[in-house]
Amino acid sequence: MRVVGLPRLTRGQEFVSNGDTVTGARLEREGGNEGSNTWSWYDNPFVGTREFNGLRVMMALVNNWDLKQINNRATGTSGGGGQYGITDLGATLGRTGNSLNRSKGVPSDYAETHSRPFFFSIFNFRNYRFRTRMESLVKHIPIADARWIGDRLGRLSTDQIRDCFRAAGFSSTEVEGYAQIVTQRITALKQLGDAAAAPPVRRALFN
After folding, report:
1. Is there a contact between 106 and 93 (Cβ–Cβ < 8 Å)?
2. Do 151 and 114 share a domain, yes or no?
3. Is 80 a domain residue?
4. Are residues 21 and 93 in the same domain?
5. CB-based contact 165:179 (threshold 8 Å)
6. pLDDT of 88-122, one tens digit each?
7. How many domains does the chain have?
8. Which residues contact 56 (CB under 8 A, 6 or more apart)?
9. Three-class SS of residue 86?
10. pTM surpassing 0.90?
11. Interhelix angle 158-167/172-190, nearest 10 degrees
């Protein structure tokens, strides 16, 4: 990106070219005067809602294995309302597992974790437990709520999904790979509850 009036940096100058063009930058939204607080996956105002259950499914869909509370921030909550968000999604789009074999931002690993039918591997509790409390996070999600988020995600076109990965700086090959996998997972969510697409094992995962 181009940063007008960029001074010479004492750190990171190697990422600057032509005086004002920066590559590999990470941006952080500036908040107001009020500080932000962390929020817990297990104790927040939205527990039990369809929307929060959809967010939990999303974390499994992108293979987020770093579900620490410190990665969740809430602002403007002192007077009620406020905004809740996940501010660090860096540990995604790779392989879940223990500290030796998990990865992030690796398309082949992301695809490999779901080479079997979607929900047989997306909730691989043994792999997730090494890093997070993912096992308890994805339990007891009603099928209707998982299918709801699938239906909403299904409104995205394949081109829009490609644009998300293209904007993140992935190569054209990676963009196509990620878009294909994400589209397949969304389709699986949309089919939850269908007799032909949801065998008993899949149903049990959302009891």
Report:
1. yes
2. yes
3. no
4. no
5. yes
6. 887 788 766 655 666 777 777 787 765 333 444 44
7. 2
8. 41, 137, 138, 141
9. strand
10. no
11. 130
